[in-house]
Design goal:
Bound molecules: adenosine-5'-diphosphate, magnesium ion
Radius of gyration: 17 Å
Mean pLDDT: 95
Structural class: alpha/beta
Helix content: 25-40%
Strand order of the largest sheet: 6-7-8-3-9
Strand content: 15-25%
Number of helices: 7
Length: 203
């Protein structure tokens, strides 16, 4: 499969354009890195590709077809700050199982401990919470993962563990990854190819 963003233009308000004729493509067996400065519009592009923003021009397609937004969305976005995507009034077990129920094997692969399940989100660290976010995103119906600075706030050991588990899972299940980061060393290690945001954006 191939995920494509074609000639995307977008602005939050009339004063400032964020994306202009931006095009990018990603195949199921690929891990593509996207590098760019802070504030350049990377997260905005991620939200467009994952269906969170709809009032853009251009199109986002999988194998040439527009992605229906009524059922499960096959392009899943993992955010930098997992705590912002979780209901603080839900226990972790409910949060984890909201999208699907991951196997014990997969929970072990991501180092997710059973004792965490009875806690509130505020009672876990950023790295622990991010493991939940990733498991939620890799629903069996997921075809592409967009990882927006997902390990920026994590220590080096946790960063390696999380990326290793995510990459292994995606390779085994033919899920393509767009890895967004401002860290060239990380992208060098994990990606097949690295693209530079400002070179693609036609502002
Ligand atoms: N909801 C929003 N409303 C208005 N401006 C926004 C909104 N979200 C982001 N922006 C602005 O859009 C620009 C790009 O932001 P963002 O996509 O988050 O960049 P990046 O992820 O590369 O740091 C920034 O100037 C930011 O302030
Ligand atoms: Mg961002």
């Amino acid at each position: 499969m191939e995920l494509k963003a074609n000639n995307i233009s977008f602005s939050y308000n009339k004063k400032k354009e964020i994306l202009k004729d931006f095009s990018i493509s990603l195949k199921s067996n690929q891990i593509i890195g996207l590098m760019g400065d802070s504030g350049s519009g990377k997260s905005t592009l991620c939200k467009i590709m994952a269906g969170y923003i709809s009032n853009y021009s251009g199109e986002v397609t999988i194998d040439g077809s527009k992605i229906p937004n009524k059922d499960f969305y096959p392009v899943q976005l993992i955010f930098q700050h997992p705590e912002k995507t979780m209901n603080p009034k839900w226990k972790m077990e409910k949060i984890l199982n909201e999208s699907w129920t991951p196997t014990q094997d997969l929970k072990d692969t991501f180092g997710l401990k059973d004792s965490w399940l009875s806690r509130w989100p505020s009672e876990l660290s950023g790295g622990e919470l991010q493991r939940f976010s990733i498991l939620r995103a890799i629903n069996p119906k997921t075809k592409f993962v967009i990882a927006d600075e997902i390990s920026t706030m994590l220590d080096a050991v946790t960063q390696v563990q999380i990326w290793e588990a995510l990459i292994n899972h995606c390779k085994a299940n033919n899920i393509g990854i767009l890895a967004v980061s401002h860290d060239p060393e990380l992208l060098d290690v994990i990606c097949d190819d690295i693209l530079y945001f400002n070179e693609i954006n036609n502002l």
